[in-house]
Each structure stands twice: as C-alpha cells, then as structure tokens.
Amino acid sequence: MSGEEPVPGFGVAVVREDGKWRCDPMDSTALRELDAAITELRKTRSTGAVFGLLAIDDEFFLVLRPSPGGVALLLSDAAAALDYDIAADALDVLRVDPPEDEEEVWPEGSLDILADLGLPAPELQVIIDEVDLYPDEQLQMIAQRCGFAAELTKHLDTILQ
User: Fold this and answer.
1) Residue spans of alpha helices (H) in the chain
2) Which letter does DSSP use for residue 48 in this model?
3) What does pTM read for this prediction?
4) Which letter does DSSP use for residue 2 in this model?
5) Burial of 44 (0-12, 13-18, 19+ CB in 10 A)
6) Other C-beta atoms within 10 Å of 152: how many?
7) Strand 108-109 to strand 49-56: parallel, antiparallel, or no bridges (unpaired)?
8) How far is 87 from 121, CA to CA, in rounded Å?
C-alpha cells in the first residue's frame, strides 16, 4: 500500500500518568507513515509511559515507544513489509531485511517493549503467535495484560462504530 489512499485500521496513543491510563486517537497518517506516528507520539507530553498501538488493515500491528535515544518498536509480522510501506519502514529502522516469503509469520523488534508495564517478552510472543486473531484482538490482549483494557475498549467503541 503506497500513496495517499487511506489505510484501514486505527492508531492509539497510550499514556500512563500518575497510575492512570489514557488512550487518545492518533491521526490517520500514523497508519501510513512511521515517521508521522513517531512524531505524533513524541508530541505527547507525560511524566509516565507513552507508547503507540497501530492495527493495520486487519493484517498486523505495531507497538512504538519513543525514548530520548530513539524509538523502540515491535512489528508483529515481518512479512507485512512486502505489502505495507509502514512495515517496510519499521524493518528499515530495525535494520532488518524483509522476508522473501509471505507464508511465515514472525515478529521483528523489541519483544520486551512493554516488560516494564507488566507484559514480559515471552507473554507478548504468545499473543503474537495467536495468528487466528485479528490485530485489534491481539492489542486488546496486550491492553488486558498491561491493565488498560477498559480504556482501550472505550476508545475502540467510539472509533470502530
């Protein structure tokens, strides 16, 4: 998918501040352009955790977590880079070559991206391995494990109607 055509899916900026979670919508350009998603997350000011969850076209998800030294990210399916510019950009950031075959599904990036928020790498791997689930369902499992499922569900109820 390239160009300016809309990409189905959603982006959510997740913020944890003073022990409370908040989910804010991300602009639709965040689904097309990795730089746009990173820039939007960097504009979110918080003393706590800030990260983005992107579900793209019922195919894959991205977790982005900006830090002063760059950005940590996790792409749920490296093969998505064969069809989606944002996934190819994610692999570029990770300095990983795209796969040659679409048949294999494996994540690339930092599986421990949310470990400090209650989701260790092995558990995140289990969620990613649930290939029969849609990306929004996988992200809801992530939210459940980290403790912001109610906030994410409220947010999704408003954008997915």
Assistant:
1) 34-43, 85-94, 121-129, 135-146, 149-159
2) S
3) 0.91
4) -
5) middle
6) 21
7) unpaired
8) 20
CA distances from 31 to 16, 17, 19, 78, 79 (A): 22, 25, 28, 16, 17
How does 82-121 read in b/e, with b if 16+ C-beta sit within 10 Å?
A: eebebbbbbbebbeeeebeeeeeeebbbbbebbeebebee
- SS3 call for 156: helix
Kindly give the confidence (pLDDT) of every residue in the chain, 161 residues in length, as a single tens digit, with 9 standing for 90 and above.
Answer: 444 677 889 999 999 988 899 999 999 899 999 999 999 999 988 888 899 999 999 999 999 999 888 899 999 999 999 999 999 999 999 999 888 877 777 899 999 999 999 999 999 999 999 989 999 999 999 999 999 999 999 888 877 65
Torsion over CA of 115, 145, 151 and 112, rounded to 10 degrees?
20
